[in-house]
Write a structure and sequence with these properties.
10 helices, Protocatechuate 4,5-dioxygenase, Chain B, single chain
């Protein structure tokens, strides 16, 4: 049966690509973390990567805004918004079809798309982690910004179900999960540009201790108040954590990137490549 051999998370703001040297003292630390993660992804020899992200009203609008959606394309194009690159990446429609069936069978009513395009929440990490872009991609959209939102607990459970669904793939298949979003940032509101370093460090500390129940208990209103509406994207991290079986995180780096208006975290859940 197939198995997940790598699960990780990183922030996704488009400025990572558009303005990569905004604060050289801090971006050097982040660059080292992304380089390390990219090398681990390459070493994992993945057959597919499930990239868990959200959308900023590029692919989905108020005519159709699902809680979860899996992309079944053979190829995925980027929108190129906010300075994000217009690249094309290969999909894994056969694997995505198996995963969709497994998630549906587990009680998750996941939508599907055969024409899905990807905004910067997906494309930024794919550019910064070229080993992921070189692997077949299965995008998993999670609604993180248009209430009602799936709960953080529901997202963690979705990750657990994803790991079970991967088991239905061929025995030789090696799958990665890459979550992308957060950490603290305020979007389209007067506090835009703020970063809550204390929140970010506490969040990463809890992940490093494997204390996911603490994070899953945070009400959305509390997250919104203390870390901004952008921090609701931490749902994507919970999917990756659930896919890794709740393994404690190895935090590669954190920087409060005020020029990017976002707290940036880079973490792996569990071992780099399990035996």
């Amino acid at each position: 049966m197939g198995r997940i051999v790598y699960s990780a998370a990183t922030s996704h703001v488009a400025a990572i690509v558009k303005n990569p040297n905004a604060d050289p003292a801090r971006t050097a630390n982040l660059d080292a973390a992304w380089t390390r993660m990219d090398a681990e992804i390459a070493a994992a020899e993945l057959d597919a990567v499930v990239v868990v992200g959200t959308d900023h009203y590029e692919t989905f609008g108020l005519d159709n805004y699902p809680a979860f959606c899996l992309g079944l394309n053979a190829e995925f194009d980027g929108w190129g918004e906010f300075g994000a690159p217009r690249i094309r990446v290969d999909g894994a429609p056969e694997a995505a079809t198996v995963l969709l069936a497994g998630l549906t069978g587990a009680g998750f009513d996941v939508s599907r798309s055969h024409t899905m395009r990807l905004d910067h929440s997906f494309m930024t990490p794919l550019v910064r982690l070229p080993s992921t872009a070189a692997t077949k991609v299965v995008p998993l959209f999670v609604n993180c910004n248009t209430p009602p939102l799936p709960s953080s607990r529901r997202c963690f459970d979705l990750g657990t179900a994803l790991a079970s669904a991967v088991a239905a793939l061929p025995a030789t298949d090696r799958v990665g999960v890459l979550a992308t979003g957060g950490i603290s940032h305020w979007v389209g509101v007067p506090r835009f540009g703020d970063v809550n370093e204390d929140f970010d460090r506490d969040f990463l500390r809890l992940l490093a201790a494997g204390r996911y129940d603490d994070v899953l208990a945070w009400p959305d209103a509390w997250i919104n108040e203390h870390a901004g509406n952008g921090a609701l994207e931490l749902r994507t991290w919970m999917v990756a954590a659930g896919a890794a079986g709740g393994a404690a995180a190895d935090v590669f780096a954190y920087e409060p990137m005020y020029p990017w208006a976002t707290g940036i975290g880079v973490s792996r859940f569990g071992a780099a490549v399990p035996a």
